[in-house]
């Protein structure tokens, strides 16, 4: 009888701990979404704004030289939606979020805070890694869209103020080359990049050993590995998605 009551009490305690852990995991996902998304939005917009202007300056003068002002919006739109916006967004997230994730988890690892999760029979991958992966997968496509829109408007601004190209001409050219498939492919890129960035940064964080020096080493390796992964997979995805497509400008 005593063993029966003890088993019941143990079951209730364990069930309560599991419910509390599930509840905290839900809020952990929301917290990571806030860190990856809204907290990164300002730097993404500012960077995209200036990069869009710089890229436009280099492109516009060459097209004006060959009297092809009507194609400027199309070329910039294709470049932004297919490559610059997803890669730029991912690089910013690597610098801001991957380093943060790795440093946070590495500190927990070297100070043996992960042992508390094992005592609760909790898998650190589900409690620590999964919320971060979900947040990156959900938020990078959103940040990518903001980056694309910002780059487009900053390009239009430079075209109008510096080269006297009316915004109507720019956006008519831009929207004529913007297709739904390119948007979905751009979003797919950032989903893949988000998964890679979160997974790599969490891997190096959980693997950290050796105190403060180990935290710094893991953070550096995380950023370098994440950047390499983004650039390598960007080439692979671009080759798969766009290598067999015809010229978007020729179709205009």
Automatic annotation (TrEMBL):
Main localization (coarse): membrane
One GO CC term on file: ATP-binding cassette (ABC) transporter complex
Keywords tagged on the record: Chloroplast, Membrane, Plastid, Transmembrane, Transmembrane helix, Transport
Residue ranges of the TM segments: 40-57, 64-81, 127-149, 155-180, 187-206, 218-242
UniProt entry tagged with the keyword Magnesium: no
Topology of the protein relative to the lipid bilayer: Multi-pass membrane protein
Keyword Transmembrane helix carried by entry: yes
Localization in the cell: Membrane
GO molecular function, one term: phospholipid transporter activity
Pfam families: MlaE
PANTHER family linked to this entry: ABC TRANSPORTER PERMEASE PROTEIN-RELATED, PROTEIN TRIGALACTOSYLDIACYLGLYCEROL 1, CHLOROPLASTIC
Similarity comment text for this entry: Belongs to the MlaE permease family.
Name of this chain's protein: Conserved hypothetical plastid protein
Provenance organism: Gracilaria tenuistipitata var. liui
Gene: ycf63
């Amino acid at each position: 009888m005593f063993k029966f009551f003890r088993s019941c009490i143990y079951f209730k305690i364990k069930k309560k701990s599991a419910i509390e852990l599930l509840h905290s995991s839900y809020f952990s996902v929301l917290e990571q979404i806030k860190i990856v998304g809204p907290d990164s939005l300002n730097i993404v917009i500012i960077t995209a704004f200036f990069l869009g202007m710089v890229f436009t300056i280099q492109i516009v003068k060459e097209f004006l030289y060959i009297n092809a002002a009507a194609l400027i919006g199309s070329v910039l739109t294709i470049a932004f939606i297919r490559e610059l916006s997803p890669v730029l967004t991912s690089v910013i997230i690597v610098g801001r979020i991957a380093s943060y994730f790795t440093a946070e988890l590495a500190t927990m690892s070297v100070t043996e805070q992960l042992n508390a999760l094992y005592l609760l029979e909790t898998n650190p991958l589900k409690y620590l890694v999964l919320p971060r992966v979900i947040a990156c997968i959900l938020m990078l496509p959103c940040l990518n869209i903001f980056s694309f829109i910002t780059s487009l408007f900053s390009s239009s601004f430079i075209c109008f103020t510096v080269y006297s190209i009316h915004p109507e001409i720019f956006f008519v050219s831009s929207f004529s080359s913007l297709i739904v498939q390119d948007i979905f492919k751009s979003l797919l890129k950032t989903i893949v990049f988000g998964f890679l960035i979160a997974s790599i940064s969490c891997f190096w964080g959980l693997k950290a050993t050796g105190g403060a020096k180990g935290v710094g080493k893991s953070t550096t390796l995380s950023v370098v590995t994440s950047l390499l992964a983004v650039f390598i997979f960007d080439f692979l995805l671009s080759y798969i998605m766009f290598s067999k497509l015809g010229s978007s400008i020729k179709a205009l």
